[in-house]
Known about the structure:
Layout: E1 4-8, H1 12-24, E2 28-33, H2 36-46, E3 50-53, H3 62-72, E4 77-82, H4 87-96, E5 100-103, H5 109-119, E6 124-125, H6 127-143, H7 154-164, H8 169-176, H9 180-194, H10 199-208
Parallel strand pairs: 1-2, 1-3, 3-4, 4-5, 5-6
Helix pairs in contact: 2-3, 3-4, 4-6, 7-9, 7-10, 8-9
Amino acid sequence: MALQILITDDHRLLREGLRSLLETQGFQVAGEAADGRTAVKLARALQPDAVIIDISMPGLNGIDATKQIHQNCPAVKVIVLSMRSDSRAVLEAFAAGACAYLLKETAFEEVVVALKVAMQGKTYLSPAIAHLVVRHSVEHWSAGPGQMPRGISGREREILQLVAEGRSSREMAASLYISVKTIETHRKQIMDKLNLHSIAELTKYAIREGVTSL
C-alpha cells in the first residue's frame, strides 16, 4: 500500500509541486493544508504516514503544529520543509517532534530521501544545514549552563502568535473555541510572564523568538 502523505504549506504552487513529485515516486497525497491549525485537524482525521510541513504559516506556526501532531498522532512522521536555515529553528523543530528537516532551496528529490529515512524510524537533517546545528551544539556545550529563557505554555504561544498577527479577542476566541474572557486572561498572563506591557511589545517579542514571521 502506498504511503499516505499530508502536505502543509501556505503556497499553493509548492503544494502542487510536492504532490506531483510524490505521486510520481509512488506516494499518495492524502490531503493538503494551508495553515498549521488545519494540518493538526487533518492529521488527526486522516492519520497519514507522514506530514510535510513549513514553519512560517498563519494561525499556527509549523513548530507548534508539529508539537501538537506529535502529541496527538505519535505514529505520524513529521518532515519540516522550510526556508529558515538557522540552528534555532532546526533544533526547535526536532524538539517539537519532527524527524526530518529540509530547506526549500534543496532539490525536491531530497524530500523523498527524507521520507524514506523517516519511515525507517531514523532522523534526517539536510546536509546543507548540518554544520549549523553542529556549530550551535558545540558553542552551547562550550558555554556551559546558562539562564533558561522564561517560557510560556503551548496555548499561550498560540495566543501570542494570533495577537502578533493582529487578531481580535473575538476572532481568537472563535478560532480556539474558548471565551473572550479566557483569551484576555491568557494575554495578561503572557504579558506578566514576559514583563511586556503592550501589544507592540508582544509583537516584537513574537517575531524575535520566531513564534511568527510577520
